[in-house]
Amino acid sequence: MITIIDSGISNIGSLVNMLRKIGAPSLVTNNPEEIKRAEKIILPGIGSFDAGMQRLAELDIIGVLNEKVMKEKIPTLGICLGMQLMAAKSSEGKLPGLNWFDGEVVRFDFSKLNDASIKIPHMGWNFVEPKKPSRLFKDLQNLPRFYFVHGYHFKEKQNADVLGITQFGYPFASAIEKENIAGVQFHPEKSHKFGMQLLKNFIEQY
What we know:
Number of helices: 6
Number of domains: 1
Largest sheet: 8 strands, mixed
Strand content: 25-35%
Helix content: 25-40%
CATH topology: Rossmann fold
Distance between the termini: 13 Å
Number of strands: 13
Oligomer: single chain
Strand order of the largest sheet: 2-1-3-4-13-12-11-8
CATH architecture: 3-Layer(aba) Sandwich
Structural class: alpha/beta
Order of helices and strands: EHEHEHHEHEEEEEEEEEH
CATH class: Alpha Beta
């Protein structure tokens, strides 16, 4: 059973449908008692960093998430804003993040590029180049394509945490992984066969 955290700021329906296609039952919840029983967690999200952290605080689930992810070490996958919330902080807001990864979230900065064609947000299909072996990318081609929608990106302090990079004006970390925790900036639930395989890997390999 996959526990999907319902913060009220994500498109959970598409994720549930994709998991159903690959035969993975899921529970959508923001109930701390149900989260305590989670065996695997997916933390999706869209929107702004502060709104995401404020919502987790209002639901009073930050403590139980830290317990499950950092102490019990259960497999956890962050998607889009969910990945960004795993950082220590973001230039988009003032609230601290979950601090599961040593890094911050920054806005795309193209001030040093002489290319007016690059627009924010980064929207549409793009490639992800794996930077280290991972069960999450099992049976995916060398440069899998995923669907992105975002104006901010993760900026790592530990290169060892970077699982994959994507080029948009410059290379940025589009996937991160450390021990039991992984995060992807793209939307696997909207990425057809590539996203389906990635979610299948998370379910079967972790």
